Amino acid sequence: KLFPQSFESPQTKDAIQYTLIYCNTPALKEEPQSCAKSLEEMIEFSKTVIGDKNLVALASKNTEGSRKELMVGRVEKLKYGKTVACHQLFLPFATYFCHLLSNIEVYAVDVVEPRTKVPVNTVTVVCHMDTSGWSPDHVALKILKTSPGQSEACHWMSQSDLIFISQGKN
Q1: Contact 124/49 with Cβ under 8 angstroms?
Q2: Beta carbons of 121 and 111 less than 8 angstroms apart
Q3: Which three-class secondary structure state does DSSP give residue 27?
Q4: What are the tens digits of pLDDT across the range 7-33?
Q5: What is the DSSP letter of 139?
Q6: How far is CA 94 from CA 30, 122, 152, in A?
Q7: What is the CB-side half-sphere exposure of residue 4 using CA atoms within 13 A?
Q8: Of 46, 66, 103, 104, whose Cβ has the fewest other Cβ atoms within 10 Å?
Q9: How does residue 168 score in pLDDT terms, banded at 50, 70 and 90?
């Protein structure tokens, strides 16, 4: 009822329903979360939960994609304090699901052209080192064919995701 007729396709309704469920899911222990509707809200939430006004935002250098075969090049483990990840969700307006991350490692990974080894992009990767609090039905655990707490789960941050880190140590 909130959205105009143009938003009534089944795919759009499903995407909106998914977003509303995601934004209303209780936070995991010690991981405050928020559904921010602007960059300003993302920054304010990040400053509040990280407790630092000197944030650094991380994103992929290039969001175009090459549509070519690539390989992993240099991997650099980043030094940081607390971390907030913000993932774009679908609503008829900008919405990001932001949450404080705990027990993670963050990496800057160069993606290179296989023949020349020339870097094409640098992508942020997050590794969740403790999955024991995750649902057994979590998509990452299904893909990895594992169970909560049995392994870490790493993923690329997509083109529309942002990570905010503090410059101090935890």
Answers
A1: no
A2: yes
A3: coil
A4: 566 666 777 777 777 777 777 667 788
A5: H
A6: 26, 25, 30
A7: 3
A8: 66
A9: low
Q: Quick check: 66 and 79 in contact, CB under 8 A? A: no
Q: Where are the beta strands (DSSP E) in the chain?
A: 33-36, 55-58, 71-77, 83-89, 95-101, 104-112, 119-128, 153-156, 162-166
Kindly report which listed range (36-40, 61-65, 107-111, 161-165) carries the lowest average pLDDT score: 61-65
- Is the pLDDT at 6 greater than 70? The verdict is no
CA–CA gap between residue 19 and residue 97 (Å, rounded): 9
Contact (CB, 8 A) for 127 and 153: yes
Whether 62 and 146 have beta carbons less than 8 Å apart is answered as: no
Determine the Cα–Cα distance for residues 27 and 41; give it in Å rounded to an integer: 18
Tell me how many degrees the CA angle 35-22-62 measures, rounded to the nearest 5.
65
The β-bridge relationship of strands 83-89 and 162-166 is antiparallel
pTM of the entire structure?
0.77
Give per-residue pLDDT as tens, 114-136: 999 988 888 899 999 999 988 89
